[in-house]
Amino acid sequence: MEANFAYHQNCAGFELKVFNREEAANWLYDAYGIEARTIS
Question: What global pTM score does this model have?
């Protein structure tokens, strides 16, 4: 997995963001609404 992340971090024009659980929940909420935060 680390090699995959490293590979994609070095691809031109490709942005990689790794979320922790809280960041992912907040991103889902911002993008898809409150219903998305209850997905586990």
Answer: 0.54
